Amino acid sequence: MASEKVETVVAGNYVEMEREEDVAQVLLTLPYSFSQLGMASGIVFQLLYGLMGSWTAYLISVLYVEYRTRKEREKVDFRNHVIQWFEVLDGLLGKHWRNIGLFFNCTFLLFGSVIQLIACASNIYYINDNLDKRTWTYIFGACCATTVFIPSFHNYRIWSFLGLIMTTYTAWYLTIASLLHGQVEGVQHSGPAKMVLYFTGATNILYTFGGHAVTVEIMHAMWKPQKFKLIYLLATIYVLTLTLPSASAVYWAFGDLLLNRSNALALLPRTRFRDAAIVLMLIHQFITFGFACTPLYFVWEKFVGVHKTKSLFKRALTRLPVVIPIWFLAIIFPFFGPINSTVGSLLVSFTVYIIPAMAHMVTFASPSARENAVERPPRILGGWAGLYITNIFVVAWVFIIGFGFGGWASMVNFVRQINTFGLFAKCYQCPKH
């Protein structure tokens, strides 16, 4: 009984870390999304994508348990081996699914790490603007490269709990500071005004609740991975208690000013509380950079054949080539906010929503597969019929709204940032001195 309680706490920390991984920096851009969507749509999309994200996390957990159970029946030994999502797809559906999953998952994690690095530079600038954001990106890139020495997710246990505290503080700081600040003179809330802005904002929220690209690796670290789906749902509900009040309060206070300030911290007056929020975000973003990169490190280690070596130094040297392109991309595309929407529409839509839903439907397409399933859908969902209807809805919605309209809008907005600020922008959205 005691071991089960420990397992639940540790698993809860891991899952909270996964949920906070993207929410940490998206917390600062959600008010920007509200200015694009309007208050009502912003709230509705958060609730909708929070529910969809929890659903696909459930599907991934079911597929993981199915894969592992089948392999263990074949006497496969997983000691000193971390199971990853592409291996689950390979074992259940074959190499073509594996290759598709590997491409989208790795590309998403790559750009997720890029966004963390961009966020670090964007945040520290509001404490010390003696250096431009590009220079800060150089500095934090070097700092984040030290994550190659962190072996696995087990080493993030205490940091996962601290990260939760850091994000909670920042969320409530944004809420309280905005309410105390009050509405700026002549505040306007014109959103939604343009389709491009509307779907750009929606895909940023899609990205917010699509942070479970490391679900399989976390489940592999659990004694009872079946608990994952419930813990993830509770974590999502907690995240909503942070994102809804903070985004609503900042948008209420500053309105359309957020359209040109994707980082909410840029509009709040400098105080010791704001500086504390920035410092906590910087620490947390360093942690989540490593958290997002760890699956990439594992993939690369397996590719070059050093995944099972016990030499920490050898593994660290092997991992360095993974960090270099992340650093470079953060310098080329420093568009904090717009890049979230682009990644959300083009990568998260497939990685976290479409592929898991389709993989689940194909895996259990035959009557025998459904009959022998390790974990069957609960009756409250309507059994297999209800599950398939829900999966079809998720695939259709995300493909049309998220990838289709969202991809069009986010790319138009992204190109607009390039035309306005240029590649390798020295100081994106910095006020003129």
From TrEMBL:
GO terms for biological process: amino acid transport. Keywords: Amino-acid transport, Membrane, Transmembrane, Transmembrane helix, Transport. Its main location: membrane. Pfam families: Aa_trans. It comes from the Eukaryota. It is found in: Membrane. The chain crosses the membrane at residues 43-65, 102-124, 136-154, 161-184, 196-218, 230-254, 276-300, 320-337, 343-364, 385-409. This is Amino acid transporter transmembrane domain-containing protein. It comes from Salvia splendens.
